[in-house]
């Protein structure tokens, strides 16, 4: 069967159209992935940024004799439901410690309840209409306002929404990461040095290599099971402690550091090794004095990225019990602590509306730490990267 | 005395002995050298050898002793252990200093010790795998002593009931049923949704980046996609539960369907977004490794660019693409936080993704949080589930590695 020229050029056009379509579809797929990212960040920012502001009420606080027994006496009666219980509660204590304050009064910005806060931000709340009217009046008079949320950054967890902060989780994260880094960095670098510079090419070495690649792909929750069964139940490491969590995360971070270090060591050209061997260095001297210093920037970059990964990990820490309720900031490696992702998880389970915003605020803090860590790693790489 | 006080004491004394070893060793080596003897190593190397022979055996004795103490419950008073290891340290110091002789290869001795230390470090990753296997299998076996393996694999009802009471000595826990089929059904449903999102988007993005995109777009798009993999899963979980799930419910409502707020679609989609970069970056590498001669041959025969990609490049890269999808699948199966926060808690055997269903990882977390008796069947069931999860993900990873290796051998690509 023969085709006319017209038919063939028609067919050709169709084929080219089809070809162009694939280009647009594939471009669209990439665009879609980018769109997800943009939507995700926009959503987190819109939900989380309000958490950095909190409603405060400017009112007169009267330090009377009654107030030293019942904090509520220090305020106007109609304001009491609107002021946070936490600030009301500390007034008697404050007066007991400073008796000379009794009889004075001052104008202060007091922390409002989360209901007032949510009302000001236009979210669902449980205020009555009279209370709303009262607030509207005071907003107009400049006595109720959203101000920078010091509590969020300066205190630990609390069941009272307006009093909940992320500080104890931040401290817990830092301590856990110290443990993780102290264990995984030396062991990871030593393993990589062994595999790249010392190990003979035999079955045993291959076994270690396969094993490391496999460890990198094991679901993180299984590391939690290991931590629970071995570290906590067998070795008796205190549950929920940064020590238990850090050790578990260290095993998880190990493959990342090993793989990054191996890449860094491999990128050091052999001529450096040959030169060092040539002047009579032993193998360890070659590694210590020549290869390792040249590979250091790459090792650091990989370790920072591994650390950032561990910092965002939650599942294994839940298994080893690091979802504890930690109202106070404690700086001990063996006492119960919580970490930022676990704190986010805990808050996300709270039914109160105010905690949605806290959760998103915590997420923003976590994401900004992770982004700065990764950016630092990229800068480090850009600054010290050497092309041989 | 407290354990950590003992540890502190041990470290301090060892540090002091080490310093002594270093300076005594170096002084002796310097003296020998000054006397005119030709030595095999530098004074500093003798000094370091003395330090190693002081600290190494002592730390070993201490570690072994405490391990025995823990493992066998042997009744060694910690004070004796401390004393024993310090005596070993002192002996090591004496040996180390005595070895400062012209004909002693201190540098080679150090080298040997370092090689052993490095090998030991490399062994830790092996121990980790064994640790995971051992901990999961031993607890899972205890579970299978209480409940039959067959029931666990084929049962369609997961109802731990009051099994924790049985462990505490009250009730007999006979009502408990541990049939894992609904859990696996939920897991595979959510994984399937995730792959339905991730494979097309990831693969098409990879095609665009490797075949069409100008260099400038590539250098920006690749790290931007990687950001998707770097976002903590707990954050994705919040996103799925708070933002995506209500959207799904609204859309379903608009279509006249009834959706639960804990539906399987929301975590599935979000998990899919999370694994896009895994699939796209591996596919990108694989597509880039398809030799250009194949593209040129196809174009020379008059195929359009699209046809070349569809009929030549993709089939050639298929093993690598499948391997990427398997890797993504293994990620999705083991993913925990997204499903814990966004999927349901109720084991539910259904084919409707709009209903709430639970997964293996959710069950593991649920049975290991809160105050649970460790001996109870419910707690132990977490390890049985973990064992299955381990086996499945391990198999997927191995198959994926084998496929990529076959691809590599076919095209002699070395950088995959």
From TrEMBL, chain A:
Keywords: Cell membrane, Membrane, Transmembrane, Transmembrane helix, Transport
Membrane is among the record's keywords: yes
Transmembrane stretches, start-end: 21-42, 166-195, 215-237, 243-265, 317-340, 360-380
GO process annotations (BP): phosphate ion transmembrane transport
Subcellular location(s) of the protein: Cell inner membrane; Cell membrane
Pfam families reported for this sequence: BPD_transp_1, DUF3333
Record protein name field: Phosphate transport system permease protein PstA
Organism annotation: Vreelandella aquamarina
């Amino acid at each position: 069967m023969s085709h006319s020229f017209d038919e063939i050029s028609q067919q050709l056009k169709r084929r080219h159209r089809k070809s162009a379509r694939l280009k647009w579809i594939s471009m669209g797929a990439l665009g879609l992935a980018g769109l997800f990212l943009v939507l995700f960040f926009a959503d987190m920012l819109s939900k989380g940024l309000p958490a950095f502001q909190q409603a405060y009420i400017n009112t007169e606080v009267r330090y009377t004799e009654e107030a030293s027994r019942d904090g509520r006496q220090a305020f106007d009666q109609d304001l009491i439901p609107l002021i946070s219980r936490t600030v009301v509660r500390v007034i008697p204590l404050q007066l007991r410690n400073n008796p000379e304050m009794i009889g004075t009064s001052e104008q202060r910005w007091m922390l409002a309840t989360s209901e007032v806060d949510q009302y000001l931000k236009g979210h669902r709340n449980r205020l009555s209409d009279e209370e709303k009217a009262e607030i509207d009046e005071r907003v107009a008079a400049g006595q109720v306002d959203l101000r920078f949320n010091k509590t969020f950054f300066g205190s630990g967890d609390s069941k009272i929404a307006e009093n909940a902060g992320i500080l104890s989780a931040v401290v817990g994260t830092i301590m856990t990461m110290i443990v993780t880094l102290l264990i995984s960095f030396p062991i990871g670098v030593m393993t990589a040095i062994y595999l790249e510079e010392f190990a003979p090419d035999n079955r045993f070495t291959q076994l270690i290599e396969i094993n490391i690649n496999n460890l990198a792909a094991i679901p993180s929750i299984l590391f939690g099971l290991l931590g629970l069964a071995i570290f906590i139940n067998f070795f008796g490491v205190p549950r929920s402690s940064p020590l238990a969590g850090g050790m578990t995360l260290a095993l998880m971070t190990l493959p990342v550091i090993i793989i990054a270090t191996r890449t860094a060591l491999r990128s050091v050209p052999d001529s450096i090794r040959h030169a060092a061997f040539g002047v009579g260095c032993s193998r360890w001297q070659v590694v210590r004095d020549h290869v390792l210093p040249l590979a250091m920037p790459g090792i650091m970059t990989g370790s920072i990225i591994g650390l950032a990964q561990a910092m965002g990990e939650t599942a294994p820490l839940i298994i080893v019990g690091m979802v504890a309720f930690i109202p106070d900031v404690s700086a001990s490696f063996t006492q119960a602590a919580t970490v930022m992702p676990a704190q986010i998880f805990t808050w996300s389970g709270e039914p109160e509306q105010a905690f949605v915003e806290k959760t998103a605020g915590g997420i923003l803090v976590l994401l900004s730490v992770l982004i700065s860590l990764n950016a630092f790693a990229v800068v480090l790489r850009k600054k010290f990267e050497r092309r041989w | 005395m407290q354990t950590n006080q003992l540890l502190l004491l041990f470290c301090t004394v060892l540090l002091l002995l080490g310093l002594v070893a270093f300076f005594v060793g170096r002084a002796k080596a310097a003296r020998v050298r000054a006397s005119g003897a030709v030595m095999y190593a530098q004074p500093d190397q003798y000094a370091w050898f003395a330090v190693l022979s002081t600290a190494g055996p002592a730390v070993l004795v201490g570690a072994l002793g405490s391990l025995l103490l823990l493992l066998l419950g042997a009744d060694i008073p910690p004070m004796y252990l401390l004393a024993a290891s310090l005596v070993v340290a002192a002996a090591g110091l004496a040996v180390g200093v005595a070895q400062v002789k012209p004909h002693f290869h201190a540098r080679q001795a150090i080298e040997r010790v370092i090689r052993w230390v490095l090998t030991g470090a490399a062994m830790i990753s092996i121990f980790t795998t064994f640790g995971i296997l051992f901990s999961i299998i031993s607890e899972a076996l205890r579970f299978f002593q209480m409940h039959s393996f067959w029931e666990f694999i084929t049962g369609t009802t997961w109802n731990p009931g009051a099994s924790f009471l049985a462990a505490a000595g009250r009730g007999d826990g006979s009502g408990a049923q541990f049939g894992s089929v609904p859990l696996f059904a939920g897991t595979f449903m959510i994984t399937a949704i995730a792959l339905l999102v991730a494979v097309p988007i990831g693969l098409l993005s990879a095609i665009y980046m490797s075949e069409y995109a100008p260099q400038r777009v590539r250098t920006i798009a690749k790290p931007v996609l990687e950001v998707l993999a770097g976002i903590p899963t707990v954050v994705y979980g919040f996103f799925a539960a708070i933002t995506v799930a209500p959207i799904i419910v609204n859309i379903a409502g608009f279509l006249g369907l009834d959706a639960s707020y804990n539906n399987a679609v929301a975590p599935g989609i979000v998990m899919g977004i999370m694994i896009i970069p895994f699939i796209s970056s591996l596919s990108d590498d694989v597509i880039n490794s398809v030799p250009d001669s194949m593209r040129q041959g196809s174009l020379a025969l008059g195929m359009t660019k699209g046809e070349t990609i569809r009929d030549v490049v993709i089939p050639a890269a298929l093993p690598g693409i499948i391997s990427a999808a398997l890797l993504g699948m293994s990620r999705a199966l083991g993913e925990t936080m997204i499903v814990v926060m966004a999927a349901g808690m109720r084991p539910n055997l259904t084919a409707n993704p709009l209903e709430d269903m639970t997964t293996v990882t959710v069950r593991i977390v649920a049975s290991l949080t809160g105050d649970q008796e460790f001996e109870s069947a419910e707690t132990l069931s977490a390890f049985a589930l973990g064992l299955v999860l381990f086996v499945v993900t391990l198999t997927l990873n191995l198959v994926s590695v084998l496929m990529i290796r076959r691809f590599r051998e076919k095209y002699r690509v070395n950088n995959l």
